[in-house]
UniProtKB/TrEMBL annotation:
Domain Xaa-Pro dipeptidyl-peptidase C-terminal: 532-781
Name of the molecule in the record: Xaa-Pro dipeptidyl-peptidase
UniProt GO cellular component terms: cytoplasm
Record function comment: Removes N-terminal dipeptides sequentially from polypeptides having unsubstituted N-termini provided that the penultimate residue is proline.
Domain of life: Bacteria
Organismal lineage: Bacteria, Bacillati, Bacillota, Bacilli, Lactobacillales
Species whose genome carries this gene: Weissella paramesenteroides ATCC 33313
Length: 788
């Protein structure tokens, strides 16, 4: 087992004493014990901790060596050394003897696990014991919490409903049994339902009962008020359709650039008075785990689904500027800069009097997408964003290089399908009856605008490309993304990360080996602690130097479990050119499948993909070309975007190219879904426990897809310009694959698989198209960093 803690800050001895005093570990009894030596001090500290059920005063239940229990050790009055303390610390942290450590050499286990404990040779004085005790409290237990958090969750002290910080992080001192749940309706400057009146959006707020003003974690989630799964599934598009030829054009970006419409003159809601308390409450549904963690630590949490959702006005329009503006309005109200009402009818307004005006936006996927999008408005009050698996450009989600592309695992989904899923106004019969006709017309227009026929980038998509507005960002940004996320693919965070390098804002990036997941309950990385450090700094002004303390880039190694490394950058390596001329030239493959195979692959695209990358399975030899490199003599790191430069021709006047970069070599690779570890993490004091999880090594496999890419041969110049394509005429194109950060092991081979139809992601025309590659004029560009 290995634990990686990046959220522990160094403090002076004086600061440690002050903090130990603030939480009750340094008082008159401790001062009296200090005068008696290091052993009485250690005993007194243990007895103080025993007010929590985590620690026992049955000292003979602890061992300090193979021969001596703690009770005997304390009675002898011997001096404390690092060996005795480490042995005791491992037990207090719930590690198991003979499994996680041995009493013969506890220091070895401490180093191997990575525990940030005090380490001083020789006999310890009382200052050493106090230093060691402070460091122990900041150290993670085997169960996934800092020891101080575990003590608090076992009621080391009663909730005070006032903020208390330890090692720069907020403690769970707020009583979650006393949380206030209230509803407000924020007035926007939108009229998405064309009734001439400003749209209202509902906001659900959960906040601690306290006399102090608190900051807010705001999650913008169109899913929050419910989803229409049956209706949405009925709208899934048929992907078993042929690739269509497109009429060539000479479009420039200026021809399709989005320009906001002039603001409308709208009627504001009448204001009849002002209230200091809300009149509506709600029953909490499923909430974001990271938000739950902060509720017990003195942060309010707000959720809104925005326009076009249940209890709000307007039409639902996936990723649109209007959707973003509706969420921006919520930030403005939380910061004290916008009007909200206690209900939809009375005209009674309400302010966020409990708010200190500072807001962070949090969430994964659609939630993180809207957090990123709101940040690009530059809205005042938004101090930071924690966006996980977020979209930065919707075209790159449902389209790519002139192709209609499905997010991994969701063939047939598109912008209208997602909008149907979250138009939760249809869940109330009356509201649905009133809006049904308008909604159906709205959806018809969406289908036209999103244009599945050509797959080209157009004005509709340009309006949903948040990368264009990155220069407006004033908030500091934390980004989290899975390098095996084929739903929201890695390019989404890579392009945002690259753009942010131009700005004078703090940007932190976490790259893990998972799919489309949260990592806040991971055992080997203290992500929640780090975000506690970060938000205590950003929203409570705690001087904990979080900007310098947290790594700029944290990467989970794909070679070894529980290994998180820090890096300075991503994607800055100069590519290495690899020729494809080591096989015959030209080389051809054909896209057509038998009727039986076509049906089988359409129903089970995972099986199709496993066959496509398996060099020893010959069922799809006719539909692919595999270029293999020699076995690696040393490890190498692939850092950034791999590009495939091809001279290729199609036997007809349409064509698409797909490619997968593959690691060939037997290995026990990490799971892309974290595995529950059999224990729960408490998010406060008996509050919202969540499973502790970890990426584990799976059974040995002969290969792994590293990354993937697709392009329409008619969009070889860019996504809006359509080039001509003539049968059997070579064209030159560059296909840039999804970015990666991947360690290729010595003895493995790097392979590129080139093919046509991708049964999971592209349309499945099953057209009889033969593709031919001129390998002498084709090459692979791989940004590699050799091992040192």
């Amino acid at each position: 087992m290995k634990i990686n803690q990046f959220g522990v800050i160094e403090t002076t001895f004086e600061q440690k004493i002050n903090e130990l005093t603030s939480i009750g570990f340094y008082d008159e009894k401790i001062q009296a014990a200090i005068s008696k030596g290091s052993v009485p001090l250690l005993q007194e500290l243990l007895e103080q901790a025993a007010t929590s059920t985590t620690v026992t005063t049955k000292f003979d239940d602890y061992m300090v060596s193979e021969q001596q229990d703690l009770a005997t050790f304390l009675a002898t009055g011997q001096q404390v050394t690092v060996r005795e303390f480490d042995a005791l610390a491992l037990q207090l942290l719930n590690f198991l003897e003979s499994i996680d450590y041995t009493l013969a050499d506890p220091e070895k286990a401490v180093a191997k696990i990575g525990l940030p404990l005090h380490n001083k040779p020789g006999e310890w004085d009382t200052d050493d014991v106090l230093n060691a005790w402070y460091d122990l409290l900041t150290t993670h237990t085997k169960g996934g919490l800092q020891l101080i958090d575990e003590l608090v969750s076992h009621q080391y002290f009663k909730a005070t409903n006032q903020s208390l910080f330890f090692n720069g992080k907020a403690l769970a001192t707020f009583d979650t049994n006393q949380l206030i749940k209230e509803v407000v309706y924020v007035e926007t400057d939108l009229d998405t339902d064309d009734d001439g009146i400003k749209d209202l959006v509902r906001v659900d707020i959960i906040r601690p009962t306290t006399s102090q003003q608190v900051p807010t974690l705001f999650t913008a989630s169109p899913y929050y008020q419910g989803t229409n799964d049956v209706q949405s599934d009925k709208k899934l598009h048929d992907v078993n359709v042929p690739l269509q030829r497109k009429v060539p054009n000479d479009l420039t970006y200026e021809d399709i650039a989005y320009q906001p419409a002039a603001p409308k003159k709208l009627t504001a809601h009448e204001q009849t008075g002002e209230a200091t308390t809300a009149t509506e409450t709600f029953y909490p549904t499923s909430h974001v785990d990271l938000n739950n963690y902060f509720l017990s630590r003195g942060f309010a949490v707000a959720y809104s689904s925005g326009v076009g959702t249940r209890y709000s006005d307007g039409m639902q329009d996936t990723g649109s500027p209007e959707q973003v503006i509706s969420m921006q309005a919520v930030v403005e109200w939380l910061a004290g800069n916008r009007t909200a009402f206690v209900n939809r009818k009375s005209g009674v307004t309400i302010k966020a009097h409990w708010s200190n005006g500072k807001v962070a936006m949090t969430g994964k996927s659609y939630l993180g997408t809207l957090a990123t999008a709101v940040a690009t408005t530059g809205v005042a009050g938004l101090e930071t964003v924690i966006s996980e698996a977020a979209i930065s450009d919707y075209y790159q989600y449902y389209r790519d290089n002139g192709l209609v592309i499905a997010p991994g695992g969701f063939p047939g989904e598109d912008m209208d399908v997602l909008a149907e899923l979250v138009y939760s106004r249809m869940q109330d019969a009356g509201d649905w009856h009133r809006t049904k006709t308008q909604w159906e017309q709205f959806q018809k227009q969406t289908v036209i605008d999103m244009d599945r026929t050509t797959g080209n980038y157009n004005t509709y998509w340009d309006a949903r490309n948040y990368l264009k507005n990155v220069s407006n960002i004033k908030a500091d940004i934390v980004m989290v993304h899975g390098l095996n996320d084929w739903n929201v693919k890695p390019r989404q965070v890579f392009r945002l990360y690259q753009k942010l390098q131009e700005l004078d804002v703090v940007k932190k990036l976490y790259l893990h080996q998972g799919q489309h997941i949260y990592i806040n309950n991971n055992r080997s990385l203290d992500f929640s602690d780090q975000m506690n450090l970060w938000l205590s700094y950003k929203l409570y002004d705690v001087e904990n130097h979080a900007g310098e303390q947290l790594p700029d880039l944290t990467w989970q190694s794909n070679q070894a479990p529980e290994t998180w490394e820090t890096r300075q950058s991503w994607g800055t390596t100069t590519p290495t050119k690899i020729s494809l001329a080591n096989v015959q030239t030209p080389v051809s493959y054909t896209d057509k499948q038998t009727k039986l195979a076509y049906t089988s692959y359409s129903q089970d695209y995972n099986h199709w993909r496993s066959l496509m990358i398996d060099r020893d399975a010959h069922e799809l030899d006719h539909s692919r070309v595999i270029f293999l490199q020699p076995k690696q003599k040393q490890d190498l790191l692939i850092d950034g975007e791999v590009s495939l430069q091809l001279r290729i021709k199609s036997s007809t006047n349409v064509g698409l190219v797909s490619a997968m970069l593959v690691d060939y070599g037997d290995a026990s690779r990490l799971t892309t879904k974290p595995v529950p570890q059999g224990s729960q993490i408490d998010r406060g004091i008996n509050w919202q426990p969540t499973p502790l999880v970890e990426f584990q090594q799976a059974k040995t496999t002969p290969n792994k897809m590293i990354t993937i890419g697709h392009i329409n041969m008619q969009n070889r110049e860019n996504a809006w310009r359509v080039n001509d394509l003539r049968p059997d005429e070579y064209v030159d194109l560059t296909l840039t694959l999804q970015p990666t950060l991947y360690q290729l092991t010595a003895g493995h081979q790097l392979g590129i698989v080139i093919y046509g139809t991708d049964f999971e992601m592209t349309v499945r025309g099953n057209q009889k198209i033969t593709y031919t590659i001129d390998t002498k004029h084709s090459q692979l560009l791989v940004p590699v960093v050799p091992s040192e």
